[in-house]
Q: What sequence folds into this?
């Protein structure tokens, strides 16, 4: 299964950002002839698009609060890692996101 994400900063492992057109064509081309493609479908959650900036803002604020203990890049990486670890258990949404922030703040 292939997935493509509009949110390059928070894409799932294995997903390609939809703005990476060259890689998208290479990946699809390696699977089949481009002539065989009849349609490409994107399942987009408009609620996520609207709220994505709020999640990013909360992440920036979280890493700003943690800057005395960890640099921003490492904070973002670790937060992403904990969200990916928590994903199978909690899923997506504000509650899982908040639980991930709490979980990471204790490390």
A:
């Amino acid at each position: 299964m292939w997935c493509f994400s509009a949110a390059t900063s928070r894409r799932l492992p294995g997903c390609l950002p939809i703005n990476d057109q060259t890689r998208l064509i290479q990946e699809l081309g390696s699977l089949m002839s481009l002539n065989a493609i009849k349609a490409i479908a994107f399942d987009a959650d408009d609620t996520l698009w609207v709220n994505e900036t709020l999640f990013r803002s909360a992440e920036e604020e979280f890493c700003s609060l943690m800057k005395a203990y960890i640099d921003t890049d490492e904070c973002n990486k670790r937060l992403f890692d904990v969200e990916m670890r928590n994903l199978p258990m909690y899923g997506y949404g504000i509650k899982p996101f908040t639980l991930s922030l709490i979980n990471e703040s204790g490390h």
Observations:
- The chain has a mean pLDDT of 76.
- The CA atoms of residues 82 and 103 lie 8 Å apart.
- The chain has two domains: 1-44, 45-107.
